[in-house]
Amino acid sequence: MRTSRIARGAPLAAAFTAAALGLGDLTPPSDVASLPVASALPAVVPTPQSLTRAGEDIVVTRRVVLVADEDTDPAARARLVEVLKAHGAARVDVTGPRTSAPASSRDLTVLLGPASRPDIAAALGTTRVPAQAEGHAIRVGVGRHAPGVVALGGHDAAGQFYAVQTLRQLFRPATGPRWKIAGVRVSDHPSMALRGTIEGFYGQPWTHQERLDQMDFYGDVKANTYVYAPKDDPYHRGKWRDPYPADKRYELGELVRRAGENHVRFTFAVSPGESICYSDPADREALKAKLQALYDLGTRAFSIPLDDISYTKWNCEGDATKFGAPGRAAAAAAQVDLLNDVQRNFVATHEGAQPLQMVPTEYGDLTDTAYKQTMRAELAPEVVVMWTGTDVVPPSITNAQADAASTLFGRKVFVWDNYPVNDFGNTSGRLLLAPYDKREAGLSEHLSGIVANPMNQPYASKVAVFGAADFAWNDRAYRAGSTWSRAMSYLAGGDRRATEALLVLGDLEHLAPTFGSTPWQSQAPRLAAEVSDFWAAWDGADRDKAIRSLRGYAQEIERAPAVIRGGAVQRGFVADAGAWLDATELWGRAAVKMIDALAARNDGDKDRADSLVAESRALQSRARAVRTVPARNTWGEVQPKVGDGVLDTFLAQADVRISLWDVAGGGHNLALAGTATASGVEQDLDRFTAAKVNDGDPGSRWASGYSDDSWVQIELAAPARVAAVTLAWESACASEYAVQTSTDGTAWTTVATERPESCGNDVVRLPSGSEPVRYVRMQGVERATTWGYSIYEFGVYGAVDRSG
Question: Which residues contact 238 (CB under 8 A, 6 or more apart)?
């Protein structure tokens, strides 16, 4: 928990008027080193609406005078003192703006409070103060009677706090232990009113300490909303009628207070839809009592999520009597009746309470239905409606989609963005560390706000939440790539080497699945480019260059985990990513060994190459044996996925190249030129056809019917000697399967039987010296799930037979 001690010295003399501050005279005292104007503007996140150069950078003196009064936000003042002391101020003396003792000409002066306060208004000069909520203005300049003056003015208390959060990012190292502040002016306000997260995932909820840390993090990134809605908190959902136990109430009260210290709106959500009787007055009173208990703890924002419930049945006979037979329109009528009651008879009667929020049962599409028609016609206009996009996990959100959703619900919608949440099957074994992306600039004009649904891993979630907060603050200036790098730097405490290591890990954990077959962010884009360049140079006869380049990056992968664990990166992130770091080190070492094997074979040293290949294979086996323990997610103890579909594919291809070194054309993926057929396709859906299994797209997939003996096969373009087969499984994989080959597609030979421990990427090596074949098949024996078999890519590596 942040604590600050404010140093209070002797009374300071002199009123801080416009004349006393003397911002028109930019000449500092001769005994204070003035630093030259820097050409580059500092990088501030969230990106301000306006940040321009105002003059020289100023030095932080050992003693700083902080001018504050009763209208200065206490949280902003405490944070400011903390920031100043972290950047060279040995003491911070606090005074009011109307003291009469002369000010020292040697001390930096910082003004903090309402922008309308006369001394702050004078110091800001022509810097525009936004009139919007949370707006603020900053001017950093050199005064006539002081070495520097910093004016921080807020439109409201939150604006003051956010001004300090911007100032925190304006410090730069000066000579020795000293710091300077960039000489800038800032005029800033958020583009969206609501910004932050909703802890709405399934699986192990965050701990109390993790939530407290998140509140501090949200303050740093100017996120003002946290919705408490963990699905597996029994008192949120299943036991919603029951009051929280005393120890839990204490924790929630502390969390509400910490949120307030960071100007975060703690929003309490209770989800009664699984069991509530909408027509029962007792259930309604129980719901209001639950909200009242949190109001008494200081909560002023409430939500009633009605997602992931059935509207084809009632929970009591009384609802059938009052609302009719169950169905879309009847469910909406019952929900509206409840929500309007809570808004009008609880929220509206409680001082300071914000408009009620809700999540509709139909939350992830743009189809007009009787449910939505009833909602928009009858739901009280004050109630805020949440929407997840065009799907549960949308590949993008556009302005047109947001407008369509707002039309459907009769109000601007509030987006519950299901990224980076990783509680569903397609995310099994994944940390989602790709940047927040593919949300269209201009959404601030079409939405009431955005909250990201994070992962079960809170510290790892900061990468995406950092971006979501930046986007919601200033969506038109948002740049996903640069914000991603700054998020990693934040986690690394500004340490350059640790930041670079985090970016390497983030590339390996870049794939972002949807509920469908196609991920909305690709896997390992940097590594994929490095591998592509490697094979182009290798096949282009510039093999030394290929080895040097890719080996250097493979070493970065190998070393990244140790750097991340070296102390600069937040310890919580290191704990969250522990299993992935273990696996990454092994995969990186395996890659270095395999590249060295290629180099040795190219130099004619076959024995050394074979030895290195064996070492690489052993490391790959160890990497595949790593498990996520302890498991926080609903998918349990599984293999952490690291660069899957890219790194493991490279290793398989390199292995086969070495195995078929003396065979012309050896080591190429022959499946890409082949024809895929299968025993069947799930529900005859075009997006799951056999052709998806060899299209070279790791995001598309084949899915079979629901039988154990299903199969998929590749007819090669020409007979070939096959050395290896690779299978990139989706979460619906096989617990046992056979790899079979055939010369005519009729008579089949089983060349391998596999019993994988988990769904992942299998490399099946075929016996050496095999005869040319025309067909290669994955023949299912037993499914691992109740679904069929599902494969992203089926690779066949070998060499076309030239003997005929």
Answer: 274, 275
